[in-house]
Design brief:
single chain, mainly alpha, two-stranded antiparallel sheet, about 75% helix
Length: about 120
């Protein structure tokens, strides 16, 4: 089952890389599918996290990546629902409600893989 960790890291990495590139194709800012806000800083973070996930999924260890991205997603998801902090996230990273929910879901799934699959 250890391959589940690496496979999930690889898939998440590919998705994050695509999202980061897609964000740049929108001109560095805007909204993906008219739902998820993006900006240049967020695009760079997605590309870095995506490349790291692809590396971990092919050559490294998946559990650390899955735990890290899981906790980051959960924390960003929770922070996105706190009044005041949500405006800060929107200003800095263009994180809107759609992304807040998506971060929370991805975070929970990644932690589920991390804690549920063999390491």
């Amino acid at each position: 089952m250890a391959n589940v960790q690496k496979t999930f890291a690889l898939i998440l990495g590919i998705v994050l890389l695509i999202v980061g590139i897609w964000g740049f194709l929108l001109g560095g800012s805007g909204a993906i599918l008219n739902l998820f806000g993006v900006n240049t800083f967020q695009n760079v973070l997605h590309i870095i996290a995506g490349l790291f996930g692809i590396y971990v999924g092919t050559k490294g260890e998946g559990p650390g990546y899955n735990a890290s991205l899981g906790w980051i997603g959960v924390v960003l998801g929770i922070l996105g629902f706190i009044p005041g902090v949500d405006n800060l996230l929107l200003t800095l990273l263009n994180i809107n409600t759609g992304i807040t929910v998506l971060h929370l879901v991805i975070g929970i799934v990644a932690l589920g893989v991390y804690y549920g699959a063999d390491k």
